[in-house]
Amino acid sequence: MTLLDGKKVSDEIKNELKELVGKLISEGKKVPGLVTILVGENPASQFYVNMKGKTCTEIGMISKTEILDSNISEEELLKLVNHYNTDNSFHGILVQLPLPSHINEEKVIDAIDPKKDVDGFHPVNVGNLVIGKDTFYPCTPYGIVELLKRYKIDTKGKHVVVVGRSNIVGKPIANMMLQKKEYANSIVTICHSAARDLKPYTTSADILIAAIGRANFITADMVKDGAVIIDVGINRVEDSSAKKGYRVVGDVDFENVAAKASNITPVPGGVGKMTIAMLMKNTYEAYLKLEQN
Ligand code: GUN
């Protein structure tokens, strides 16, 4: 059984980017910039935004974080997004989700210039993904494909079963694995909570991608011997022996499923670690496209 080490691979990607950005700096060129917009005080969002800023700085990219009061109006937020659409110091714009309920998330995502949409959430980029045109891949699914690639896992003609249909993970990863490309070209099934019984789907998976958001949901009886298991879940479960009173587990019952798997991602240290690295990669790619034209 091979553990797919997201920490190791994400460090590799960050080091590659650091080298590329270092080269820009040594040539006296402009460097890539990412602005992250956080509305309100959601602790998980604060943590992620903080990590994104820190990682940018480590790589040598320009980073700016806009922290806005939870009462900000939708209009003001849209104005800020528009400001960064035309500020050429920034090549990537990321609005951390979820937004407070009085703000329409779709409207905000629609306002981001698709060329700066490093999350890959804008409908233009989603559409381009579906028809196989150049786009930004959403960071978590992009991280999954990159892990498969760096561990040289054969995906051509393999049955990929995605459990979960979110816009952030389930739908984009299904579309990416379907593409006629290396480290894709798979036979793809999407299943979800409305299934009367998920087992017939999950047990037929050569590659099972669990993006459900329920702790330890995928049990050993739900997977085929030798399957590749990608666990996207980040769930807090109470643990009085842990310092914080909780620990983080995935959507997969790791120990029992690992005993049957050929490859598996741990939680933490798997897919989660890849997301920020791919955000950095998307920001660098946005920079290349915007600065070359
Ligand atoms: N909230 C949870 N995941 C994400 C993500 O990938 N991007 C943004 N912007 N917000 C999120």
Can you walk through the features of this model?
With 293 residues, the protein is α/β, with parallel strands linked by helices. The radius of gyration is 19 Å and the shape is globular. Strand 2 (33-39), helix 2 and strand 3 form a beta-alpha-beta unit. The strands form 3 sheets. The protein has a 6-stranded parallel sheet with strand order 1-11-8-7-5-6. The protein has a 3-stranded parallel sheet with strand order 3-2-4, with helices on both faces. The longest helix has 22 residues, at 271-292. It has helices at residues 6-26, 43-59, 74-85, 105-111, 123-130, 139-150, 170-178, 199-202, 254-258, 271-292; strands at residues 2-3, 33-39, 62-68, 92-95, 159-163, 187-191, 207-210, 228-231, 235-238, 246-249, 263-264. The protein has 2 domains: 27-114, Leucine Dehydrogenase, chain A, domain 1 (Rossmann fold, 3-Layer(aba) Sandwich), CATH 3.40.50; 139-272, Rossmann fold. Guanine (GUN) is lined by residues 94-97, 119, 139-140, 168.
